[in-house]
Design goal:
heterodimer; A: alpha/beta; 10-stranded mixed β-sheet; 20 strands; globular; B: alpha/beta; Rossmann fold; 4-stranded antiparallel β-sheet; 10 helices; 12 strands; binds adenosine-5'-triphosphate; binds magnesium ion
Chain lengths: 441, 251
């Protein structure tokens, strides 16, 4: 099945696997060897997903992959330029610099090591928490990129927040991409927040645009232990030369809180987010907020999956989309409420505004409930701006453009207002305003 | 100030205004009454510039200009204000920040400096007091979750803030309790001056006890079928509309 892609790229993938499995100097813990083997043989068999794969039905990845990519070539020349204007640069906090997936401690500003552990993933493969995360069985059928990721990863970051530690500032991961050649980068991250711990992790992305296209295949495994809190914010805005698939698996234990905010703004020409939540304890709260504002020929795909396995939990999803030009977006959300998960509250909402006849959205909210005492709802809307509201504002003297932008902002602010971090909120609102002023006027 | 001649308008293939004539001079208050569906709101909408209505014949001049040729926002900036019969709820748009934009658009059009934050606040306070509009409401999302009466008061509050030359109130009195009715009427009377005109659409003579109109018109089936002074309203209160529907008379 790998025959579908560029010959050189295929060679690269095979060589890379050989490199990883035969590497003499690398740490190859016993548990990991078969995991990698299974993942690779699956990937070799399935190849990258095609439109025949139910989970990739509206997402033609082939056109983003068909390049002579180099796979995870160590590119020592690429250093993060200190003045690279990535989106979110002004935000205060600790900074973790990742260059094509490789952790660069030199350029990072890390919290005191008494607060938490931050290490390249490849150095901590024998940590019990790492082993536990990597040993979880995953659905490769729905996620061939994840199979590839597990088989081949050598880069990525491990962030471990010990028991009862509340990190005093946000931890900001900045993913720099690009090199001399077309790059395909594989990153595996693991975040663990131990019992009673609390952290805010922000992710930003950068591609200079001068470098050739890069493809980022990233998978992040997250564990939120009892009574712990993790705020996880993705600020997905970078040059169109960056394409990416970001797979996120979250397991939550009792009394924990996980908030995911995924903002995708004009720029990257392909973004696929998988966000899978495993609600594995009672009294858990999870929020998933997404906003995609797309332009030109962007393709932004958000797939979410929430598994309610225990009673008395609440999950809440709100994804909103504003699509302009020829851009396309996909929202596919699945919520399973297992029969034991009584008193579950599960909400899922996806609302979209199309700003152009050429834009398209495929929205599919799904709810499967096997318990009887639950409160669940889901819904999806696709529409234009409300003409009545538009007229009302104009009838008070606002120009059409101002009225439209006010309505679009109101639509989007519904999501941004959920952010607890006021600085990020202000930054995003300003950006949305800027984008929409361009679209409307 | 406003002259409407032989106005015909169509919506969704239905002709709703069928040759309407009306002249409003500065300083005048006109009341328009008429049965449900007779075209009162349609007239207000056409004057405010709602694009769904297509004007098929006739013309409207406002302060010597062709009103129909102006975009709704230009009309608003030039002093035309319509209080909506059914104000829309706009979640996420703050009442007060929207109003600030609106006030400054109008001022810019009139070649005035934008109001400073302080002056805007001052004016907001004055007008809130004038129409007794709760400041907690002013700070919420535009009309979101407002009661029927609160929405109407918000229309009057906005009118007071924008200080229009020609205000068209479409059933602003419906849904108001008796105290609110008096407050709205007081507001209108205070804002009224010799350079300003009001068109007040209502079903109830009651409002006209507080706001005394110079003219009362009856609209039926897209036309004005009778005009008179305030006594016409009393007559309608007594007799209903049936006697007018039979024999259209234009003034
Ligand atoms: N958007 C629309 N589409 C189709 N028909 C409409 C629309 N708006 C108004 N009409 C029709 O136009 C006619 C006049 O309606 P209009 O709202 O102007 O009446 P009105 O005099 O204001 O009535 P009311 O006293 O009930 O408010 C009615 O027959 C109405 O059904
Ligand atoms: Mg009406």
């Amino acid at each position: 099945m790998l025959a579908q892609i560029d010959v050189e790229f295929r060679e690269q993938i095979l060589n890379d696997y050989q490199g990883v499995s035969e590497c003499q100097v690398c740490d190859k813990p016993d548990y990991l060897v078969p995991i990698r083997e299974v993942a690779f043989s699956f990937f070799q068999e399935s190849g990258f997903p095609t439109l025949k794969n139910e989970d990739w039905k509206y997402t033609p990845v082939k056109r983003y992959l068909n390049e002579p990519f180099e796979v995870d070539q160590e590119d020592t020349n690429t250093i993060a330029p200190a003045d690279a204007p990535y989106f979110g640069k002004q935000l205060p906090g600790y900074k973790i610099v990742m260059i094509n997936g490789r952790f660069d401690p030199e350029q990072s500003e890390l919290p005191d090591s008494s607060q938490c552990t931050i290490a390249p993933i490849i150095d901590v493969l024998r940590e019990p928490t790492v082993k536990e995360r990597l040993s979880k069985s995953r659905n490769y059928g729905a996620n061939p990129f994840l199979a590839m990721n597990t088989a081949l990863f050598t880069k990525g970051i491990y962030i471990h927040i010990p028991k009862n530690v509340k990190i005093d500032h946000p931890i900001h991961l900045v993913h720099y991409a690009g090199g001399e050649q077309k790059q395909f980068n594989i990153t595996k991250n693991i975040f663990v927040v131990e019992e009673g711990g609390e952290a805010e992790i922000i992710e930003s992305y950068y591609h200079s645009g001068h470098a050739p296209v890069s493809f980022r295949n990233s998978a992040t495994e997250i564990l939120v232990e009892p009574n712990a809190t993790l705020h996880h914010i993705k600020l997905q805005k970078a040059h169109s030369n960056l394409r990416m698939v970001e797979h996120t698996e979250v397991e939550q234990k009792q009394d924990s809180l996980y908030n995911n905010y995924t903002f995708t703004l004009p720029g990257m020409n392909f973004v696929r987010n998988n966000l899978n939540l495993d609600i594995n304890g009672s009294n858990i709260e999870s929020h998933m907020y997404g906003l995609y504002l797309t332009n030109e020929n962007q393709l932004v795909d958000n797939h979410t999956l929430v598994n309610h396995r225990e009673p008395d939990c609440e999950s809440n999803q709100l994804y909103k989309g504003i699509l302009t030009d020829r851009s396309r977006a996909v929202f596919n959300g699945k919520v399973y409420v297992h029969s034991i998960a009584q008193k579950t509250n599960a909400f899922q909402q996806n609302n979209n505004i199309l700003f152009s006849d050429d834009a398209a959205i495929y929205s599919k909210p799904q709810l499967e409930i096997f318990a009887d005492d639950v409160k669940c709802s889901h819904g999806s809307t696709i529409g234009q701006l409300d003409d009545e509201a538009l007229f009302y504002l104009r009838a008070r003297g606002l120009s059409k453009a101002d009225a439209q932008s006010m309505l679009v902002n109101a639509f989007a602010f519904d999501v941004t207002e959920k952010l607890v971090d006021e600085e990020i909120k202000a930054m995003l609102n300003e950006e949305i305003d800027k984008v929409m002023t361009g679209v409307i006027s | 100030m406003l002259e409407i001649k032989n106005l015909h308008a169509v919506i969704d293939g239905n002709e709703v205004l069928k040759g309407l004539n009306l002249k409003v001079n500065a300083g005048e208050i006109h009341a328009i009454m008429g049965p449900n569906g007779s075209g009162k709101s349609s007239l207000a909408s056409v004057l405010a510039g709602r694009e769904e209505f297509e004007v098929t014949d006739g013309d409207v001049t406002y302060k010597g200009q062709d009103l129909l040729d102006m975009d709704p926002e230009i009309r608003a900036r030039d002093g035309v204000f319509m209080a909506f019969q059914y104000p829309v709820e706009i979640p996420g748009v703050s009442n007060i920040s929207f109003l600030k934009t609106a006030v400054n658009e109008v001022r810019e059009h009139q070649k005035l400096e934008p109001l400073s934050a302080r002056d805007f606040l001052k004016r907001t306070r004055e007008m809130q007091e004038l129409v007794q509009f709760d400041s907690a409401l002013a700070n919420r999302s535009l009309n979101e979750g407002f009661s029927g009466g609160e929405k109407k008061r918000n229309e009057i509050f906005q009118m007071a803030m924008l200080d229009p030359t020609l205000a068209i109130l479409d059933e602003t009195d419906s849904g108001l309790d008796i105290d609110a009715l008096r407050i709205v009427a007081d507001g209108v009377n205070k804002l009224h001056s010799k350079d300003k005109a009001f068109i007040i659409i209502t079903h109830y003579q009651r409002l006209l006890d507080y706001i005394v109109p110079d003219f009362v018109h009856v609209l039926n089936d897209g036309q004005i079928v009778r005009s008179g002074d305030k006594n016409l309203a009393l007559e309608l209160e007594e007799k209903g509309y049936d006697w007018l529907k039979k024999e259209p008379v234009t003034s």
